[in-house]
Design a protein that fits this description.
496 residues; alpha/beta; 16 strands; disordered C terminus
Length: 496
């Protein structure tokens, strides 16, 4: 069986020395696939050196072969802090006002992808398949092809693909999109992102068309499909029963005695809608004075990318906003908002989720959002909490039994909180069952297996070479993806 090579900006396999509860479900799923296929996980080490040497650091971590490389400080600043986090991240999350267009950023981005390709090349064997992850590495397949790599290469975008009108604001946008056509398979989180990508291709590339279930543009052919990512629901349900989770649960229940705790867990990022969420909670306090002492918001927001000015500004604004709200509504024995800027282990978060009566997952734009799914997986079936979910999270397409809100509307957030906290047990249980069924069915293992199966070889489809691109032919790509998911689900049931 051919090997699987996973490439990502940062490498994060489970490390027994750190405990599996410190590792995300995505990393665990990829590590399991790498063990199954005797593969390699390649990426940046997270370290900088005075001069790039291309020297690989190879190690074996819990059965996974890991290969990392250091970057020069200039490369780090231009590729990672620059083009990845100051250009692509805000643009892809619809924040054109925060997008920085600097030629040196783009040059650094291309240079690092070229260096990654040169460093990765000796590790690739003829039968390997290569799976590249996320916006940091869009040009990597192009650079590998230039070096003569003919292996099947897939790409998965973990963040949203923006609307056509936003993509064209990016200098050299055609070159970026053309680089994606050096992949055999391009994966997106949602049908919306898939359709936005196709919309750009059909609008901007003369002669673009569908062909045998794929897209033809720039003289190349690639297949594009939606593969919604999930969590390991069974593993998270197991974590809820761990000693660490129970201790945190007991602490949270004791702290929120006589009160209902609402939780938010997000990286400190402007895409997460944290300011809008806090303002929505303030509106709830204002609209429901009789409930003020009965509800508290715990917002966990680990600091990230603190070298980027936009993130520094966001933290300052939130510190001031939360301080003002707490000053207005706190009493001697009660503070309505608890604001915590640190990370917690997955088992600890499982205990927090289980103790919460509701979760506010209200990003302004998100590829999927796995916090929503983890919250559902952690709930007590006999007395579940209620998920309040932004319509702009990719997860909203799957989790329709949540209370769906527009995160830009304080009134909608306030109304959803009032409804969630007054919802009767029968409705809470019904909604939770619908949500948990999806979380179990569309889990991270299904996502991984569906993508790898599709990358290994496309199913046969009728030849549509002469067809003009129409809504029906565009939708056929997603139909193919759904058929593949159903086939893999049946296969897993047979293996079980």
């Amino acid at each position: 069986m051919s090997r699987l090579i996973v490439v990502s900006n940062r490498v994060n396999p489970p490390n027994p020395a750190e405990g599996e509860s410190s590792t995300g479900g995505l990393a665990m799923a990829l590590a399991a696939a790498l063990r199954e296929y005797s593969g390699i996980w390649f990426g940046w080490s997270g370290k900088t050196v005075p001069e790039f040497t291309g020297q690989l650091n190879m190690q074996r971590i819990d059965g996974v072969t890991v290969a990392t490389v250091d970057l020069e400080e200039t490369d780090y600043q231009e590729y990672y802090n620059g083009y990845a986090n100051k250009t692509l991240w805000p643009l892809f999350h619809y924040r054109v006002d925060l997008t920085a267009y600097d030629r040196s950023f783009g040059q650094g981005y291309d240079r690092v992808n070229r260096l990654f390709a040169q460093t990765l090349l000796p590790l690739i064997e003829p039968d390997d398949i290569v799976w590249i992850h996320d916006y940091h590495l869009i040009p990597l397949a192009r650079e590998l092809r230039r070096l003569g790599v003919t292996n099947r290469i897939g790409f998965f975008l973990h963040i949203p693909w923006p609307a056509h009108q936003l993509v064209v604001t990016l200098p050299r946008h055609r070159q970026l999109v053309e680089a994606l056509f050096d992949y055999d398979l391009i994966g997106f989180q949602t049908e919306e992102s898939l359709q936005a990508f196709e919309g750009y291709v059909f609008s901007e590339v003369e002669g673009a068309k569908t062909d045998r279930g794929g897209l033809v543009a720039f003289g190349k052919r690639a297949r594009a499909a939606a593969f919604p990512i999930g969590v390991d629901a069974q593993d998270f349900a197991r974590l809820v029963r761990s000693d660490a989770a129970r201790k945190v649960y007991d602490r949270m229940m004791a702290h929120s005695v006589f009160r209902k705790m609402v939780v938010g867990v997000d990286r400190l990022d402007y895409s997460k809608g944290l300011e809008e969420r806090v303002i929505g909670f303030e509106r709830f306090l204002h609209d429901h004075p009789d409930l003020r002492r009965e509800v508290m918001l715990l917002q966990i927001a680990p600091i990230s990318r603190d070298e980027v000015e936009a993130y520094q500004d966001l933290r300052g604004r939130l510190d001031g906003l939360i301080g003002r709200i707490n000053g207005a509504y706190a009493e001697m024995d009660f503070t309505p908002i608890r604001w915590v800027n640190r990370s917690y282990r997955r088992d600890e978060l499982a205990g927090v989720y289980r103790a919460s009566k509701a979760a506010l997952v209200t990003p302004l734009r998100d590829g999927m959002n796995l916090v929503a799914k983890e919250f559902v997986a952690a709930q007590d079936p006999e007395d579940p909490g209620v998920l309040i979910l932004s319509r702009f999270a990719g997860a909203a397409r799957q989790m329709k039994a949540a209370l769906i809100v527009n995160p830009n509307s304080p009134e909608e957030i306030s109304d959803a909180l009032e409804r969630a906290l007054s919802m009767d047990l029968v409705e809470r249980q019904r909604r939770w069952r619908d949500l948990f069924d999806n979380v179990q069915r569309e889990d991270v293992t299904a996502w991984r297996d569906d993508f790898v199966t599709a990358l290994r070889g496309e199913p046969e489809t009728p030849d549509a070479e002469d067809d003009e691109p129409t809504p029906s032919t565009v939708q056929s790509l997603d139909v193919t993806a759904k058929a593949l998911k159903a086939r893999n689900a049946e296969a897993r049931e047979v293996r079980a």
